[in-house]
Amino acid sequence: MQVLLVEDDDGVASALAELLGQTGATVVRAGRGGDALNRVKGCDLVLLDLGLPDMDGLDVLRTLRRASTVPVIIMTARDGDGAVVLGLRAGADDYLVKPVRKAVLLARIQAVMRRVQRVAGAPAHAEPVVAGPVLIDRDRREVSVAGTPQPLTKTEFQILATLAAQQGEAVSREELMLEVWGTAVVGRSRSLDFFIGQIRAKLDGLPLQTVRGFGFRLDS
Questions:
Q1: What is the pLDDT of residue 121?
Q2: What GO molecular function terms would the record report (predicted)?
Q3: Strand runs (DSSP E) across the chain, as ranges?
Q4: Domains and CATH numbers, the chain
Q5: Which neighbouring-strand residues pair with 145?
Q6: How many CB atoms lie within 10 A of CB 111?
Q7: Spatial separation of the C-alpha atoms in residues 64 and 34, rounded to whole Å
Q8: What is the pLDDT of residues 151-162, one digit of tens each?
Q9: pLDDT in tens, 163-194
Q10: DSSP label of 187
């Protein structure tokens, strides 16, 4: 299991990393919210402090929730029912108030991870997706317009495939950026807009809609 530990106190982070390492987990450390959003891809669990130097941990969580369903456990000194409710409403799977006993932390991690269902073996076959005159074959990594193959770059195909996997549903900009570049930070927004424009230019008639203030949706 790979755990992203978001904690700006080096002493606390080192102690937690050592504890998690003893359980066999691989720990990725981040002391800032921006770093956490850059390093979350591929992680199985996030332990998130709220008192970060560059941004509030709740803002990190809200951004992360628009991009990923990775389990998140908040560990913070913020006490009180109001703080807990805010954290859980923002998308946390659990909320722990520091100091946290080692046995309690490990038990909470195990409880959260038990709720995460993992699919073993090879991924299921993905049926081709039809979007207007465009056929998207994710298994073969092929795209055609009215039967004519259209070459896409790796990045263009990855964006299109992510949208095709959720056809008819709005996909956030953050989720697309996390999937393609491994980061959900806003600095990639212009790059995403450029590639969306390239996809539209290459695939005439593609029903790719902009969802204002959120992201994009691929219709049928």
A1: 44
A2: phosphorelay response regulator activity; transcription cis-regulatory region binding
A3: 2-6, 26-30, 45-48, 72-76, 94-97, 129-131, 134-137, 142-145, 148-149, 170-172, 208-211, 215-218
A4: 2-114 (3.40.50.2300), 129-218 (1.10.10.10)
A5: 134, 148
A6: 12
A7: 11
A8: 988 889 999 999
A9: 999 999 999 988 888 888 777 766 667 888 98
A10: G
